[in-house]
Amino acid sequence: MPHCIIEYSQSVATRVEIDALVAATHAGAISSGLFPESDIKTRAIAYAHYNNGGTQDAFVHVTVRLLSGRDDQQKSDLSEKLLAGIEPLLADVASVGVEICDMHRESYRKRVL
Q1: What average pLDDT is seen over the chain?
Q2: Hey, which residues does 66 pair with through a beta bridge?
């Protein structure tokens, strides 16, 4: 845990190497000191169809889903580290955001082979 999910408008891929964006996001999660690297899952999803408040402005939004139990300061520090790590890659992207979301620990299940 956590799951770092990068959502971005397809046009971002013409401006930045998506593998570099994934690597920067992953590195930001590592730098938080909250998780061992082996627990961090990072993935990216491009969107061809979207509406940003009536515009087609480029966007990147990182959602970090993690098991509940971290305090507000830890979550704030994590979002700051992630934003600081990806922002230099996205200087000309109109909207860049990071969101930390708790997953309900008691109901979360997974299977790993």
Answers
A1: 95
A2: 102
Contact 78, 40 (CB under 8 A): no
Q: Is the peptide bond before 2 cis (omega within 30 degrees of 0)?
A: yes
pLDDT at residue 44 in the model: 98
Which neighbouring-strand residues pair with 59? 95
pLDDT of the residue at 112: 84
Give the three-state DSSP class for 101: strand
What is the C-alpha separation between 86 and 26, in angstroms, rounded?
A: 10
Q: Residue range 101-107: average pLDDT?
A: 92
Residues 61-80 pLDDT 10s = 999 999 989 999 999 999 99
Q: What secondary structure letter does DSSP report for 52? A: B
d(CA 51, CA 75): 28
Nearest CA to 77 among 20, 31, 25, 22? 31
Helix (H, G, I), strand (E, B) or coil at 108: coil
